[in-house]
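Weekly modeling sync, notes
Attendees: AB, CL, MP (scribe)

Item 1: holo prediction request
CL wants a bound-state model with 1-deoxynojirimycin before deciding which constructs to order. AB pointed out that an apo prediction alone won't tell us much about the pocket. Agreed to run with the ligand included and paste results into these notes for async review.

Input as submitted:
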Amino acid sequence: MEQTQWYKNSVFYQIWPRSFRDGNGDGMGDLYGVLQKLDYIKSLGCDGIWFSPLYPSPGADCGYDISDYMNIDPQFGGMEAFKAVLEGAHSRGMKVIMDLVVNHTSDEHEWFQKSRRRIEPYTDYYIWRPGKKNGKLPNNWDSHFEGKAWTYDEVRKEYYMHLFAVKQPDLNMDNPLVREEVKKIMRFWLDMGVDGFREDVITFISKKKGLPSDHLLPVYKGIFMYNHGPRIHEFLTEFQNDVLLNYDCMTLAEAPMVTPGIALKYIREGKGQEFSMMIQNETMCADCFFQDYFPRKFSLRRLKKAFRNWQEKLDGKGWNMLFLENHDHLRIISRYGNPEYREASGKMLAAMYLFQKGTPFVYQGQEIGMVNWHPGDPEMYEDVATRYYYAHHNQKASPRARLHKLWRCSRDSSRTLMQWDATANGGFTTGKPWFYVNDNYKEINVARQDGDRDSILNFYRLAIGLRKRLSCVRWGKYREYSKGSGWLYQYSMQDDRQRILVVCSFSDQTKKYKAPDGFYLDTGKLLLCNYSDPDPAVLKPYETRVYLW
Ligand code: NOJ
């Protein structure tokens, strides 16, 4: 089938189902709640939805531990509710993509239960190894969430590998039977009408032969032994040829530590392309190393360099995925913006990424400028990685310092309840919610911003609408100015019909401003600004402007 690349014209909204909207009053976000909010998502200008996992799951990693791939968890409303949402989305012109999590399953999945008992054909569905004679683990790899990557199973009397939580055993993708299962899952959802997949840590699925130990890093030991592993392209090509190329679908690959050069091995357009787009992490590292647990001071130069790198190096060769938030990262205003200038900096950050080339994703709550959560008690955290971190790291620090570290690092900050209105629990549920709402919900919520022309929400609507009308954003060339500045980010997008200039101040001070050479502001049309009285020669704190020629 010919693939139409419809995703290049799309803007996606990411739903993390547990915290989006509870439609039946049991305290858990669900698909009935999503159904109520499809018009809201559409009103943003979004025409695609990415669902974080909806499948049955024990919930050890909030759904990323799947126990049945071809079903919808009853707590989200089951298959009937999903089909209603799929139809509701399609009838509004919105695509739907599912999270495909096949690096690992839940340990409660039937395959694992049979594998640990050596019941055929499941015996080799997972990565099992005996321990070493001296009582040591099969190798020195770390898991990302809970200590070492191996846990001993008393039933099988062997260790199994888990690159994430103990309850997330890794599948053995070298086994052709496992690959057949993956293809079956893909076909199941695509045949139902789903429009593609976001593929969870998909670059981890091929492990180096012999599973050798690795001493290169102090943490995440082993990552170079399984990220972009030896058979990765072979597996992905098989999925493409046997399944994906038969559908007009898109694939979005999560790829930790990927560079544009490596990404192009997967997403270079033309024959042999393995994914439509990749989720890179470089633009999420302007204030941390690798990920949020290793913070460093925010650097605008680092952020600009990362965007430049991806805009320039993929240009004409591969397609970018653009994002500022998701369920794995803290809220962007609290990171790259400034909560004291929440509105101005939230709007500036929106303009900064929405006018770049690629397919933008907006994460639930980002569009109303939700900020980080600061609970008073470490016990309030739910995330498996956060809980492990708290129990095992930083123990000598004061209780206050330990709590503050979680405020700065835990992905639970972006998993608090969506703030719909000023009623109890932010209007998320009429029941007892499964998780917390940020204390600021009376001030920051959808209802309050919906009718306010100057709200962050309406700024998103405006910016997304503009983006859709500007050919240069989708097809033009990116060029950056004042690269060395530590407070100013400005770039242009240009095609043969038009040119825009996007100006973003990252300063909390009023600054003098002069447009780059060749841009005459008096002849340009000011399309967007986050202040009502812009002065061409000055930028107010966190001011942003988009000009068109
Ligand atoms: C990446 C997902 O985005 C994250 O939420 C999850 O915990 C891990 N992969 C493991 O599946």
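Recorded for review: Residues 61, 64, 101, 164, 200-201, 254, 327-328 surround 1-deoxynojirimycin (CB under 6 Å).
Action items: CL to compare against the apo run; MP to circulate these notes.
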